[in-house]
Amino acid sequence: VALRSAADVAEAIRAMVVRGAPAIGLSAAWGMVVAARHGEDLAAADFLLRQSRPTAVNLAHALDALQSCWGNPDALLLAAETLAREVERAEVVMAAHGASLLRGRVLTHCNTGPLATGGYGTALGVIVEAHRRGRLQQVWVGETRPYLQGARLTAWELAQAKVPATVITDSTAATLMAQGRVDAVIVGADRMAANGDFANKIGTYGLAVLARHHGLPCYVALPTSTIDLLTPDGAAIPIEERDPEEVRCLGPCRVLPDSVPALHLAFDVTPAALVTAIVTERGVLRPPFGEALRRIAG
Amino acid sequence: VALRSAADVAEAIRAMVVRGAPAIGLSAAWGMVVAARHGEDLAAADFLLRQSRPTAVNLAHALDALQSCWGNPDALLLAAETLAREVERAEVVMAAHGASLLRGRVLTHCNTGPLATGGYGTALGVIVEAHRRGRLQQVWVGETRPYLQGARLTAWELAQAKVPATVITDSTAATLMAQGRVDAVIVGADRMAANGDFANKIGTYGLAVLARHHGLPCYVALPTSTIDLLTPDGAAIPIEERDPEEVRCLGPCRVLPDSVPALHLAFDVTPAALVTAIVTERGVLRPPFGEALRRIAG
Lengths: 298, 298
Description:
The structure is a homodimer.
Chain A lengths: L5 H9 L6 H17 L4 H9 L7 H9 L6 H26 L5 E6 L13 H10 L3 E7 L6 H12 L4 E4 L4 H6 L5 E4 L3 E3 L4 E4 L2 H10 L4 E4 L5 E2 L16 H4 E2 L2 E2 L12 E4 L6 E4 L2 E3 L3 H9 L1
Parallel strand pairs in A: 1-2, 1-4, 2-3, 4-7, 5-8, 7-12
Antiparallel strand pairs in A: 5-6, 6-11, 9-10, 12-13
Helix pairs in contact in A: 1-2, 1-3, 2-3, 2-4, 2-5, 5-6
């Protein structure tokens, strides 16, 4: 996919050609570089990119990081390159911090690997590192309706990394937990509020409730750039509602009668109270999270 | 679909051309009538039909009810016709008993309406009757991966019945509950054990846990023919594991890389402890369920 303007990049983000909070942030940064090369109005480009999707805060963080370089295309390129390196490095460090939390069989949701991030992955980076250390037997991957990021992307990433993985429909997770076939849940995040509440792909909140019911740990892995201290709690995180057509369709097939509406919430909010630990590139945080988050992201 | 032998009917049940516990039972009964007409060995026909799917106990109940008529094709036809009438009548009565339990916005899963039953529906019959009485504002329909019975069948049935319905991905239920947009969960069952534990479509158990977490009632509607007093509890219910290809595919599209396995559990078991009330044609049962179930199904 060739993107030749900030508008191209914004549309690619909106249409989910690129998705995953860290990858969205980096795409926006490269969108500014492209805009500068083509002599676009950078304030307009910044505005377009910032509005492309509402939930992930990495988008705003990446664009904020570049604003001081608008006057200098060389500096802008350098800033984008630096950001990309920092994002990937944070993921490698995060994986090292988090790997010792996991053992046995872990369940993940949506896509948090190389295809969604700076190149190494957030939750998936932790999983791959735990496997590399011989700690994991099995990864359960929720298919992640409606976009099937789990089935289409995470399953492929785990196969590339030679980590044993099995895909399940999202509603199978509860039964695997009841059968004692899950040891932990680990997910990524699109935005974490100052109190540790976080938005992530629809389905995450239910998994966190189910993990609690079954006495299983629930971990969230994210770079500090996903933490938004200006958002006090989950209720203040804007949750994107996407086109219901994305629920009405399975790939090319329309499965729903025309007369029946569908609802497509793209994200949900998981309260901090359901989180066992937060894995970041600055270490593993345990509850209560508020002060620890201020310390590492302030 | 024309079915001309017991083997045809058994294959239609196995391949889910017909599905839904009551509809499977009635199809097996008609399979015996077809077999008798064509002079098939009825013991072999009974065996084939009985083995077609493992979880729904209605299959065995329907075949048991016909066994005394094997020697008389006219009596066999009459027995099948009587069974069909009884099954539908039980559903109408069940709906009348259950309707007063529901109000506001209810969430259901899989398909329990005319397409899955004796013609009126189990959980969906209760929903339609509650709506007829002016008690319901909204029905949330889980799409029910992997077969999408909710999106493809229940949504159509509710549209036919002019009940306002909105389809959601299965993993959206938790968030709707957290947002206060669900007042009750109601589902059907494929088999209920003597203690009230029951098997139903994969995803039901998770909804029951989520309902409990959010302080919402969870109802199950089923005819007494779905109760199996010989199965002591949920652990003894055989759970069908179906072809993983059904998870790997979305209709005609293969979405999973070939190298990644999938798991397809067709049902799950919900413990009686998570059930608020059981709706049957013999009334509404409240916990503890054991003695009440023995009384109505003994």
